[in-house]
Amino acid sequence: MTVSLQLxxxxxxxxxxxxxxxxxxxxxxxxxxxxxxxxxSGKTTLLRAIAGYLRPTSGSISVEGEIVAGPHTWIPPxxxxxxxxxxxxxxxxxxxVAGNIGFGLPRRQRRTSKRVSELLEMVGLAGxxxxxxxxxxxxxxxxxxxxxxxxxxxxxxxxxxxFSSLDAALRVEVRTEVHALLSEIGTTTILVTHDQEEAxxxxxxVAVMSVGQIEQVDSPWRIYEAPSTLGIARFVGDLxxxxxxxVREDCALTALGWVPVTAEDLRAGxxxxxxxxxxxxxxLVADRFVGAPQDAxxxxxxxxxxxxxxxxxxxxxxxxxxxTSVAVRAAGGAGVAVGDQVRVxxxxxARAFADPVV
Amino acid sequence: MVAVVVTSIPLLYSLVRTLDAGGESIVAALWRERTLDxxxxxxxxxxxxxxxxxxxxxxxxxLLARTSIPGRSLFLVTAALPLAxxxxxxxxxxxxxxxxxSGLWAAIWVMSLATFPxxxxxxxxxxxxxxxxxxxAARSLGLGPLATARRVTIPMAWPAAAAxxxxxxxxxxxxxxxxAIFRVDAFTRVIYTAYRASFDRTSAAVLSLLxxxxxxxxxxxxxxxxxxxxRWRLGSGVxxxxxxxxxxxxxxxxxxxxxxxxTVVSLGVPAWSLTMRLLETRRFGFDFTELLGALAGSITxxxxxxxxxxxxxxxxxxxxxxxxxxxxxxxxxxxxxxxxLPGVVVGLSLVFLTLAVLPAAYQTLITLAxxxxxxxLPKAIGASRxxxxxxxxxxxxxxxSLGRGPVRAWMTVTGRLAWPGIAAGALxxxxxxxxxxxxTLMLRPTGFNTLATELWSRTDVEAFGDAAPYALAMIxxxxxxxxxxxxxxxxxxxxxxxxxTEHDEPVQVQQVTYVGGAR
Lengths: 358, 519
Hints:
The structure holds two protein chains of two kinds. Chain A is an alpha+beta fold. Chain A has ten helices and 21 strands. Chain A has helices at residues 43-51, 97-101, 107-112, 115-122, 138-150, 168-185, 196-202, 220-225, 230-236, 263-268, and strands at 3-13, 18-28, 32-36, 58-63, 66-69, 82-85, 156-160, 188-193, 205-210, 213-218, 240-243, 246-248, 251-254, 257-260, 274-277, 282-285, 299-309, 313-320, 325-331, 341-346, 351-353. In chain A, strand 4 and strand 5 form a beta hairpin. Chain B has helices spanning 2-20, 23-30, 33-66, 72-80, 87-97, 103-129, 132-140, 145-174, 177-181, 187-197, 201-229, 249-284, 288-322, 326-336, 343-357, 365-389, 393-401, 406-435, 438-443, 451-460, 464-490, 504-515. The longest helix of chain B has 36 residues, at 249-284.
């Protein structure tokens, strides 16, 4: 596999404190990478530096082996062959849809070639050549912006939170289509987003960014199941955090009993301060089994304190007898009511982290 | 409705009168060589001013909106300030300093200096408020900086500039004082001369109608261009300002040289010239009672005019702000066309009208005030309309539900909240009317003087020194709205490259319109 984009010790800022503080990253050809970070993490700044809108303070950027920004090199954005789909689409309001899509094509191709209508068909907007941008819905504008970026066949495509301005239902629909389209074409793509669900569902690999640095680059399931820091673990999904009282072999004693912990976590660090479980790693057992714990399965008894029902699943908060609250996710309804006595059972392996407070 | 009828009376009357004169004499008047000459002169003047405005405004707007040139907020104010100098005062200042100036070139030069802010200010706002997104997208699609400017930045900023250009053209077309001072035979001067010669009133009326037709064309074009600029922004998210270009040392020096030279010719020369004349005046002694008399005359006539204008404007403004029926839009549109009425035309038609219908009203204060009201009605409507529209209708209906009658509810809620805007509209009419020259010359009672007429009579006999105190007084009065507008602009976030707020822009553009058309 060839490397399409390579970042080395990249530092980018706006004059004051750097916003991107030493990022190194390789993106393989044909990869779909999501850069996930909270607002202010520097992810958009990173994208703007790759696009060539911002000049890095130090470090280098190479695209397909060619250095486009480095200590002695600076290639302006128009010579980089990098397509960008900006946040709001940023269509040219004075041009119609065909004019927008053909914008980056050589003059003779703009009106005559079939490329524009092919692209329109590809993004599912066939026949809308003559529409004005202000006549399009938000989702349509984003698709036109995508077609416009793809028209000159860029080496690399950058998506800057392109779905965040769409409403929830449309967002899922458009991003699923975009994903299908891009994996079909095989364009190397970098998506910047603050939406963990979006990053996990659409990307081949996810780079989690925080305070100007990349903390972990991994497959979506590794990011979710094996986050390298507690911060990432908290950021990418709901978390049940339990203080550790004692460690024995690869188990940790917590309010839920002896919970199995990923072996490498215990080997790597000193004594862990807490373990973290996803709510779906816990299960509820109704009260007729209470008092009859099965063999060694870690569990604890508590009272249902609250239920958040979402239809496809539900999140039940249980107050354990020792006062700790845990969240349990179940597919569909949990079959319990507030005030019921239940037993919480651990069904998986926990991650262990050093307690941030200690 | 009544308001519209009242304002259109003068125009309708001169139309009727023209037709009365009989087809043959109209055709004769139209086809005279002088008519053609006048049209060519006026159009040359207008086109010259359009080019002049572009040359002066485009580099200025770019420097102020897109570069890191030092002193931006100061230069933004100095770029707006020429609006505070009535153009014939500027013409007077130049001719007093360079007595040889005259003719078309002189008029183009002075009118360009006087009107370029109409282009520079909205263009600066448009360039500053553009989203960086489109330009960045163009760069990522393979366009260099120049191609990006040509294919993206200019097309997007064009409506703002075009609206300003049309405003400048309209202003130039109806300007009387400057063309008269430089002895350019444009419509306004020819009409005025024909009227003074008094045996040739059909010709004056025909030329008036021709002038109004041209002005109408400009007003309609302006409204269409402005309407189109409304759709320029798509989406609803946060806008990111275009980063300012860092200038190299040499570029910065050149940019500063440009801005300083522009300030010198548009403000420095008039200021210097007036100051020198003022010093001369002090040497020869000056009659202050005359100045105070003229000031009192200006204020009296303008205040009555402003009162009539607001009384006529309020019903239209209330209707236009709250209802959008076809009839209401028609009335508002008709009132808007009032922008196209040059002072010389309104003056002339009121002269005809009073002489024919009500000779007792000829050259009375009330006729003069009425002329002001007709001329500046659109300004009064604009100001009161936007402030009324800003009051949420829910407030008024809540007052109704709490047991207030419709009139009381309006007075205590909407009227109460909107009155600063309405008062500002009245003040604007008052200050603009004080600068009005041609209609005042035609309609004022014998022996009644205003600042504008005193200034005029002194430049007419080339008593330049004596005119200076009047010119200064007019500038001081006229600078009030310009100062307000400058403050408005300077207080806009985004002056230093931060993201501007969206709702500021319509206010600025509207403000330019209010000040615009000041004759």
